[in-house]
Amino acid sequence: MLDFIVKNGLLFDGLASPPVRCDMGIRDGRVAALSSDISEPAREVIDADGLWVTPGFVDIHTHYDLEVEIAPGLSESVRHGVTTVVMGNCSLSLAVGEAETLACIFQRVETLPHTLIEKWLRSSVSWKTPRDYIEHLGKLTLGPNVAALFGHSALRAHVMGLERSLKDRATTEELARMKRLAREALDAGCLGISVDMVPWHMMSGRLRGRTIPSQHADFREYDMLADLCRERDAVFQVTPNPQNRKSLIDILRMSLGLARPRLRITVLAALDSASDRRLWRLFPPMLFVFNKLLRCNIRFQTLTEPFTVYSDGPITPLFEEFPSGVRLNDCESREERQQLWRASEFRQKFRREWTDGWRKTFHRRLDSMQIVRCPDSSIEGRTFAEAAQAFGRDPMDFFMGMLEEYDTDLRWVATGANDRLKPRLALMSHKHILPGFTDAGAHVQNLGYYDGAISLLRQAVATGFLTPERAISRVTGEAARWFRLDAGILREGAKADFVLIRSEHLDSPIAPQVEIRDPLLDGAMRMVKRGSDEIIEAVYINGKLVVLRGKIMESLGQEKLGEVLTIAADQEKLSKQRSRNRISSEIVDHPFTDYWDVFVLKHQNPYNIAFHMIGVIIYYGVLLWALVALNPWLLLLLPSSQIIGLLGHYFFERSHIDRRDAIFSLRASRCLNRMFVSILTGKYGEEIRRLNDELKKYRLARPDIPSVSQRSFG
Question: Which pTM value belongs to this model?
């Protein structure tokens, strides 16, 4: 017997297929049947005539890591039809590290209220490893499904110590430890790894005002983490530095798929910026070059509505991008901030940096910044420029005076991007730009884009820029498939996460953000959305009703409904890769993913190394000889260089040689050249010692794994 049947609904499968009117039978939290007329008996029949039946929405960019510990129902997203969330973005996660350190990293970047931080610190569970953390998540009474990225800032602070992680380059040993922990996180079920390069993401606490750990890494550290994701086809999420073109170059270097597997990388964010109205036009041609010509697998993310941020006087993430704004956010009291304002040097500096157009992401236009709330109610609803004109004041002097006098009693709002319809629709419809970037769970007093999927559907219906089935697939099956999640699709055997939609209400404007007093935050203010109540009839997770016409059911957050979603490993592919990368017939299992590490451990005998050095000299000597003599027939001598290397292995070091590497492969060629340079610079012996130490540590943890028993070089 079925638990219930959803009858006569117009079903969208999440794969952009044309919708079909059919019945859907649910049993044990799964879709048991899809048919035009299900005859099997059921305990309940739900009449969905006139309703759309869609997969639950997938929110690919949230910061629910702390909130899920306190209120795992995540009702602010679920009420808008979200049944799967991806958290751990922007290098921020809880998978490793001390609670106090993690709180200092999270609080200011995501402008989380002290109440939420304190609640988490009081109730935080002590886990020691990424695997422990994933197992802990699985024990929570999750509302939606949760997929977790492994945050680089948490990893770096844990390995290096917080203070060193904010200023120093990681040592070789620290990099090796990061690699082991990151690999463990991916093996445990993390969806991928997230890094952050944005220079206005700051620490709180005693180290406040410094940028978070991930931003202090160098390219080799980012690239090492990217290679781990490449190896497993896991997600690599990166937030670039919009003020530094080098960060985009680094991202491209990591992403290149020429002669190697593609990196599944998602980048924040593709927006129509109010500070540069030409920028949005660059994304389509850039993605064409990257993905089509350079074999990348890049997905940018975009917001599905105008990027509108509310601020409390001088306390705002918008001020973090210039030094005097950072100093204001550093202050712990109104008195400290007013003392700054009383210094003429500070006011001059603030004015200079505010009007400086260099490296400006927030537009800083006083004629586009509106006063929402103020002790002087006569100016509410006006822009700062309009209010200044009414008082006969210079706009900049008036703005600074308001910030000084009213501090956080002044609330204002500004829209920094995606406010124009045509560019926004173009970004949302691009196949390599995913609708996302809601930041749900973060900046709770500044913004609330929990209804990102519904906002997309509203605009699709109102403008026709996407068909309903295409729009639904963008925020369900398409997003889930790219992130490799078992979610976002309605078919037989799928998890019964779905939404019933009253489509006649979709032809309506995007819902505004509103303020509520959130009991979760002990009555503190939170920005949310409430415009989905008339659109969404019901939300089901795991076959259980959790939202009905805007009302949250008691089971949400009290009963475990969602699951921790992980990437299903391709065992055949992993087995082949394991075999190809073995060091010898005895050493098949090892902790190394970079082929250079494997290569070094297969080339330790000094005589074998000498043969390979001779082989490299012969290879380039033949190339030069053929070029100088203009005789291409001389190239027939090139295989002699490979033969010399194979002889070295045969007589002196019987390590494993893959056939492709023996004949020719780019990875073997790169490593041979690197070995040649390392030997000439005297660094190769150090590499051998380092890698043998790592292998020894791995063997101590896994006594069933033999050690390398070869003569050391140098």
Answer: 0.84
